[in-house]
Structure formats: structure tokens, C-alpha cells
Design brief:
single chain; 130 residues; mainly alpha; globular
């Protein structure tokens, strides 16, 4: 049932991301520079970012499950710590590096980086539950 575990963990991180970005939508739009219409919604309402995000969550969850299996991470606490560690010490520095070279606003770094850290923590916790 590893596939179900991977899908549930990906869905949990994706759902958190939906809440995170809905809550921070105005700040994210301002920091990202995405063109918006008069209602404050992106001018190009493509579904592609949502599909790409869902696929990315599945890829990350699958690799995290593989890594957890190889490392013997199988308790709630160890899954939480490992997920946090992957987010805070791999994903976050990578985002920081990209945004530094692209001269992106610090608000965007904290919003996107925060999602990476908390999303990985959630994913790791869910993976360890099964």
C-alpha cells in the first residue's frame, strides 16, 4: 500500500499549500509580480501550475517515502523531523539561492520557503504514519 501512502502524503501537502497560498495570496501576488486583473486574480488563469504542483507533490512524496524506507524512518517523530529537515535544510536553501540570484523580494522567499518547510514536514509526518 505504499502508493496510497505516497498519494495521501502528497495530497496533504497540496491541501496545505492551497490554504497557505489562499491565506497569503495578496502578499504573494505583490511579491511575485504576477499580472492581475481588476479583481486581483492572475490575468492568465492557466490550470498548468496546479497540475504541475500536484505532480511535483507526488514526485517529492515518492522520493521521500523511498528515502524514509532506506533510512528506517518509521515513527511519527522521526518522520516529522526528517520532513522538516528536508524542507529546512534542502528545499529552503535551494529556494534562497534561486531567489538571491534572481533578486526576488524577501517576502516571496518567506512565503515560498515557508511552504516548502511546512509542506515537507506535513509530508514526512503523513508518510511515517503508514
Amino acid at each position: 500500500m505504499e502508493v496510497i501512502n505516497i498519494v495521501v502524503a502528497a495530497a496533504a501537502a497540496y491541501a496545505f499549500g492551497a490554504l497557505w497560498y489562499m491565506t497569503l495570496a495578496k502578499k504573494w501576488v505583490a511579491a511575485s509580480g504576477v499580472a492581475c486583473d481588476a479583481d486581483g486574480r492572475p490575468s492568465n488563469p492557466s490550470k498548468a501550475p496546479f497540475v504541475i504542483s500536484a505532480v511535483a507533490m507526488l514526485v517529492v512524496s515518492g522520493m521521500m517515502r523511498h528515502m524514509f524506507g532506506r533510512a528506517g524512518i518509521d515513527t511519527l517523530g522521526s518522520g516529522l523531523v526528517a520532513g522538516f529537515g528536508l524542507g529546512a535544510f534542502i528545499a529552503l536553501p535551494w529556494i534562497m539561492t534561486n531567489y538571491a540570484y534572481a533578486d526576488r523580494p524577501k517576502d516571496l522567499f518567506w512565503i515560498d520557503g515557508g511552504f516548502a518547510v511546512i509542506g515537507c514536514t506535513i509530508m514526512g509526518t503523513v508518510l511515517a504514519l503508514f
